[in-house]
Amino acid sequence: MLLLQVIVGGLLLGAIYALFSSGLTLIWGMMNFINFAHGEFVMLGMYVALMIVVWLGGGPAVFGIASAFALFVLGVAIYLSLIRHVTRGPMLAQILSTFGLALLLRYTAFWIFSANVVSLPQTSLGGTLNIFGILVPAAQLVAGVTATVITIALHLFLTGTTLGSQLLAVAEDRNAAMLMGIRPDRMQALAWGLAAAGAGIAGALMAISYPWSPSVGETFGLTAFVVVTLGGFGSVPGAMYAGLIIGLIQALSAFYLGPIYKDIVVYALFAALLWFRPQGLLGKA
Amino acid sequence: MKAPIALALAFILYPFVFSNAFYLDIGVALLLAAISASAWNIVGGYAGQVSVGHCMFFGAGAYLPLLVYHHWQLPPVVGVPLGIIVSLVLAVIVGMPTFRLTGHYFSMATIAVAELIRLVIGTWDFAGAAIGLQGPAVGRGWWDLTFRGELPYYFIFLAVLIVLLLVISTIERTRFGYYLRAIKAGERAARSLGVPVRRTKLYALMLSAAFTSIAGSLYSIKTGFIDPESGFGILVSVQMVIIAALGGAGTLYGPLVGALILIPLQTATNTWFGGGGTGLTYILYGGIIVLIARFEPGGLHEMWHRIAPKFGKRHAA
Q1: CB contact, 8 Å: A105 with chain B?
Q2: Is the Cβ of A178 closer than 8 Å to some Cβ of chain B?
């Protein structure tokens, strides 16, 4: 029963990994661009949630939406002021732009919020549910289900709506999309906004159940790399499955080996993936 | 040939002009930063393969000398070639699979493997776990390279830097150097002209790893202490990247120029903001990196070549 509980916990956390990783994979698919600051977006989402709760006293619905909105604006602003100008530049500029951004965001957070571990005050989602003998904290269940719903909604938005199709058209062939009257710049700005918003919500959802400090961004960023590589670059459904798998692997390695090994196992998996299957599980060679 | 000799002379005379310990300390830090950034520059600058996890080589070079001392009481210097061997193995592990793919995979792999190693070292008792390792407190002989003053270290570091710059300037004029620049300018075009792209990139990474490892060894032998954060921390990698990119990645003297600017700046911010100012230093680093990427990816080198003709006489351009 304990093992089953560990598995459920891992999958629920994995659903959140899937949510923030789908933004990273979307941007990679559209622009062949790796965002090294993606984990920092998640971290900022957590602090937005904290500030909303402390200052305004809102519940999870309020700070979830606030995190999404704040990060959407930040994502679009970063695209327009920085990313747009470096995508056509040398590789060095592409990588340094978001790598420098990650440092800037991480250490600004250290400076403002200090390195102390913080957590949200008890929210309305306290308590533990007993589902057929498996104990699941209500907050984790709500967070995992919400994350899954949003990830699926993102996928449906991309594949089922006109705007989403325009976005994917730019991803497939920028020039052809331009000839069809789509403005790639707008679509890419939208993609950055959506990716950051997804990371923001994911951060807010995790903030409900887990304590954190500014350094979590680095861990989440690397986790997102692993998820996206496993799922195949550019594939939102791939990120979804891979997120669940990574969450499960983490939970099991923490259970069998000890909590300090959960990240070690995942990063080692990443190194192995690069050697044996860099295109991921669902990707094509 | 005159400028390099004048530069070398300036560096040789520096400790005699500024003999006070504070300035000597800055000089030593500057030389070490220039060595590791120049080593990064071989693969990150010349070959255009941007590593953001070079601390894995620095850390390997830093740990091995103190490991052989700690476990077998050997002189730390014995660990230097061992550190190079470990770094070469790491370079192959990271480079072999990722150099088949686009450059982003290489960057991601470097940062992930570096972080993996940092976590493993932090839990591994043989390597001192989170506490770290110490070198000989008092030298048992000259071979322990434990000196009281900074001056001997200054000249050892300077000698290594000069050797490294000579190696790079030689490479610049060989076929290998042209291959590197061809790959940076366009991998597909280089391959179509018969450049062995993967092998060249791998050799560049291995050479870069070896010298970064030496930089790490110099650091730990001088400091007599190493822990996971100072060996494998992300900020070790950040410093190499920022110094090379600031001065001009892919140029011979770029990293040296970058170090000449950044190290005194870092000392100044640490002095102004006190011990709590390290956070502000890294905010500054992040800001500088973003600004370089956005406005001047060629670093000061390219900026100089664009601006200088406007001030100088016509024939200077």
Answers
A1: yes
A2: no
